[in-house]
Amino acid sequence: MIVADPAYGWLVIPVIVAFLLALRAERNRRNDLLRLAEPQFHAPLAPEQPAGRRWASLLLPLLCMLLLVAVLMRPQWGTIEEQETIVGLDIIVALDVSRSMLADDLVPSRLAVAKKGVTQLLDKAAGDRIGLVAFAGSAFLVCPLTADYALARQMLAELDPDSIPKGGSSLAAALTEAQPAFRGTSPGGRVLVVVSDGEDHAGGIASGLERLRRDGVTVIAAQAGTPEGGVIPLPGGDFVKDRAGAVVKSRATPDTLQRLTTAFISLNADGNGLKPLIERARAKGRESARQRHRQRLADRFQYPLAAALVLCTIMLLPRSGRRP
Is the N end or the C end of the chain the one with fewer CB atoms within 10 Å? Predict the structure, then answer.
């Protein structure tokens, strides 16, 4: 057995204090009555009650209050099977983790800002399933579609340029990898979010894009980076250089991403911008409905509540032999 709201257990302390004060008050009352008269008048003034009745008059309220505290703490045991209908989008985020995403034109880097934007998307997701594809020169499904946002956040945090062994940047590989990730989902609720600086060294975007559109996938894109560009740091404090030894400046190329979709934005430095795109896709498309089975602990507060009501009823019953 567990309790859902253990903080209410602190109420036991004032209940016990009230019980001790009641004991003290009862003792003082009897002593005060006995001091008012000679011994021969004690019995008429303070008739002796059976010990059981005296303790019952004190313990019944105590037990009743303790049971009410137990009700507030919500004891739970056993499980209940539930089936619920979840309505939402199926969203695959294709995140560019190529070396150029380490450029510093967004602080601290394009990749860090892109991750922040995807994290904000996860924070605001409600009913959506989200998956992750990481791509550079090739692509890999890192996290299949899931409603376990904590798992998606964990996988997202681990992504870096070393996650994909093949260097470069291939948007076509990302589109190809994303397509099978939507299998078994509702066509009206499929959304692919490409987050990249727009660099593409492979070409072949058109065929992958056509397959996605044929499958009913809405493609949206977010640019991470600026046209002014930035340098790409390397371990040890150096920067990426060309063959002539000059430091390379990587610039975002929005034209490439705009070939994917007209639903295109540039990520702000704080990662904002993805949410409005998702809401636009939600308004245009049709969210998928799916059944989910889950188990939850059963609330059992009814038992202490019923016991408290029984005790209250007993306390309200007239007592035989009671003097006016």
Answer: C
